[in-house]
Amino acid sequence: MTGASHFMRLAGGWSDPAFRAVATQAMVLALVAGIIAFLAINLIGNLEERSIRTGFGFLWQASGFEIGQSFIAYSASSTFAKALLVGLLNTLVVAILGIVLSTIVGTIVGVASLSRNPLVKPLATTYVELVRNVPLLLQLYVWYAVLTQMLPAASAAPQLLPGLYLAKSGLHFPILHSGAGLVFGALIAGAAAALAYVAWSRRRADLTGAPALLWPRAVLLLGPAIAALLFLAASTPFDVPEPTRFGFSGGGLVTPELTALLIGLSLYNSAFIAEILRAGIMSVSRSQSEAAASLGLSRAHTLRLVIMPQALKVAVPPLASQYLNLAKNTSLAIAIGYPDLMSIGNTIINQTGQAIEVIAILMAVYLTMSLSISAFMNWYNARVALVGMK
């Protein structure tokens, strides 16, 4: 009976709301399907007309080009797939370090903008207004020009520390050709120890009210890696860079392109993060600070234990959007010659002509990276919200 009555309502024509809803959805679906079919047919026809082959088999061919900055072994004889992997790692390094550095700088500037000091507050406000109102691309050009035009050549490069040189070609530093696995394992062990300490300190805080200390986390996180580096330094010879007339021989290199991109992205996004955190802190009622002061808490403890946990509930959603913007803005690296994923993808397109496949790979990678950041921030937002409800 119910099905028959629903059929009678649909048969009522366009004047019936149920019929209009179903008909509208069907027409939109048909229109979208028609557009996709039209584009697909034209794409196939254009590819056949120009004799452009399709498929992903080109990924296993030799790339035939070098990459200036690579965190894994790579040469011109490596495959296009490995070239894309190098670009992905280069992009991830900039995105992860940029998020960390912009958060640190943004937190400092955001707190400073609320300072009562007559010098600190105007400086923080000036920094925010200056940096966020200048286009990011222009800032990248400025930093790249500073690093490549204002620094000395290799023959006159200053030695900042033993084996550490800063020149137009970049930052040259000593490296170890073995032991990376030991350092990586030490980092994992340190991270596990730091997480265990965080869980223990929270349980202790719930039982006794004693605040968790910050310095044990840093010691547990970085201590094993530092110890591994010291052990390797004592037992393994370093490859130290040596300045020559035309450059440096040996050692490791952080290119000016990577440095300019990292500085530009970090400072630009830190200005927005500072405003987000300032707004979050100001959203917390003044009575919270007064109550903390009446309990004898210092201003630093009040900020860390009372204000920031409540401010984060407001700040985390816009912070997630800012982190997504930073990750996507890494594609501007092509403007200053840093070999990120987009830059290497363009090179592969120029060599193979298979733009559809390469663009599909790039879209999938950036989509996955953005969804991963979004998922992590959603998890953290839920965690902060749960803590705030206790």
What report would you give on this structure?
The model is unreliable at 386-390 (pLDDT under 50). The strands form two sheets. The chain has a four-stranded antiparallel β-sheet with strand order 1-2-3-6. It is globular, with a radius of gyration of 27 Å. The protein has 390 residues and is mainly α. The protein folds into two domains: 2-46; 80-175 and 238-389, Orthogonal Bundle (MetI-like fold), CATH 1.10.3720.10. The longest helix has 35 residues, at 355-389. 68% of the residues lie in helices and 5% in strands. It has twelve helices and six strands. It comes from Aminobacter carboxidus. Belongs to the binding-protein-dependent transport system permease family. HisMQ subfamily. One of its GO terms (molecular function) is transmembrane transporter activity. Keywords: Amino-acid transport, Cell membrane, Membrane, Transmembrane, Transmembrane helix, Transport.
N-end to C-end Cα span: 51 Å
Q: Please report which band the strand proportion falls in: under 5%, 5-15%, 15-25%, 25-35%, 35-45% or over 45%.
A: under 5%
- Shape from CA axes? globular
Could you describe the largest sheet, including whether it forms a barrel? 4 strands, antiparallel
Overall SS class: mainly alpha
- Order of neighbouring strands in the sheet with most strands: 1-2-3-6
